[in-house]
Design goal:
mainly alpha
Length: 175
Amino acid sequence: ADRVQQLEQAMALQEEASGWYQRAVELAPEDARLLNDCALMLVYYLKRDLPEAERLLREAIRVGDDQLADLGREVDDQTRNDLEESVGDGWQNLARMAYDQGQPFEAYRPMLEKAITYYPYRERAAARTLRRGSGWIARDSASRWDSLRIQQDPTKAAALRKAMTEAQPLADQGD
């Protein structure tokens, strides 16, 4: 009985958290991350109001894309990455919803393809799922571990930043 009571309390807290997310979205409707997180409460924790969750995810994509379009080239990487991650997460979460609803891979493949055009690009679950060509692959701990090791090593992080800086003009030219 104790475990049942704990689960009921946990569910009540998730309901309360969802209400707070909804209120936060009312206060900050132009925050793509917040829109995403509010949708995730509905999809993954409460497993209800899927049309509203889809609306929130699509709004997160729209808001984030609009804000990305307004950023200048001189904006810092963290700001750009945060916005891109929100938009990419929106696409990835829409794909995951489609998968969870039993839609065929080809129905959500375009969403996966859009997701990987945004930071963190090929490190996303969307990329792993695309490589597999079906189903859903949520985690790839090896690539995450490698990424964390690079970010935590100042020498490797500096080398990566230098390579990215040199590669960006080529990428801008379509190379």
